[in-house]
Amino acid sequence: LDARRGTPDAGNVDQYLWPRGDAAKRAIHAVSTAVAVDELGPEVERLLHANGRAGQKKVGHPLSLHLYDAAEPAAVECDVVADGAPIAGWLVRGGGSNGRTSAPGLWVFYPAEPLPRGVDIVAKWRWDEQRDEVTFKAQ
Which of 56, 31, 36 is nearest to 46 (CA)? Predict the structure, then answer.
């Protein structure tokens, strides 16, 4: 995750989900089951510590909504289910100083545990009057 690297088709994009879906809302990117916490940086380490998980080495692969320079939404929600069962985790506004996890307009869902492999996972995002979703399988 490098939240500050730029936008696809700069100037033409006002929001972007990761993983990105095709016209059928199926992911066009490969998604790993987990990411090492030390690759994400100190803001994620603090998030885990604040939630009683200090020292945890991995989280599920982060899912993100990039709103770029859009006005700050009143509320953002992300529901993630795997094979119909909710995935526990935290939705965080990426407002810190670490470019791996923060950027203006960035929202990230961090699954508390590695994602299950090989089953349909659906992430449903809602903000203001908008919504989007993507279905993917973790590998």
Answer: 56
